[in-house]
Amino acid sequence: MKFYLDTAEVFVPDNEPVEKALSRTTHLCFAAHQDDIEIMAAQPIIECFQQKDKWFTGVVVTDGRGSPRNSLYENYTDDEMRLVRFKEQRKAAIVGEFAAQVMLDIPSKIIKDVSRNEPVDDILKVLRATKPKYVYTHNLADKHDTHVGVALRLITALRRLDPSERPERVVGCEVWRALDWMIDPDKVLMNVSDHENLQAALLGVFDSQIVGGKRYDLASMGRRRANATYFESHGVDATTGLSYAMDMTPLMNDAKKDPAEFTQEFIHRFAQDVKERIGRMS
Length: 282
Description:
Helix content: 40-55%
Strand order of the largest sheet: 1-4-3-2-5-6-8-7
Number of strands: 8
Number of helices: 12
Distance between the termini: 62 Å
Shape: globular
Largest sheet: 8 strands, mixed
Order of helices and strands: EHEHHEHEHHEHEEHHHEHH
């Protein structure tokens, strides 16, 4: 498979031919950086784990060169960090038994430039090779520019597919902004109660980020547990781990929908919920 950059790669943990590995995909995740997949898409990874009829494929869109670093990695160059993060992502794909792990290796500045078509073209190639049933990416209320850029490039690519080629559902997940603020009917609930050991292992392989100064492992597991407890105020916990997502399928199926206005609708419903609750008590 030919991508925009020659340095892009497709890693297949079980050594199946690339075409076969990609075609078995049922759950597909597009993430900005190495470790974003394991933070936001634990539920589909768990759902596909050791299943014969369900396969998870991850796609990391950027090169990971600009990550913060400390301790052991303090003096690593950007190029050295890229190699470390690619290696870590391959480890995660092995631990999670992914169908495949794609790394497009595109600089963040290109992802954030709407005039550049290369990311959209690469994303389209992956979509057509995998034909997934479900697609996961960053939510549009995320506060990281590159995350939002990836989600927007994905939406553009999905709209270019023939309706018969499109997945059943596209959801935007939590990373650099939790979605607990959304009103409950708007939340896509992702139960991550099972395989906590696997979840911890997937997060733990990203040593360059954890030792390098960011405890994404503790923060992600803590957020999932907090979501499970705080989801329902008048009942006992129904899960021990919960992640939230935003259903972005309407943006794929209606090219006239503006992503900013679409996201503002979630915010408006939240604002109305707060206003009405205060009004009832005043």
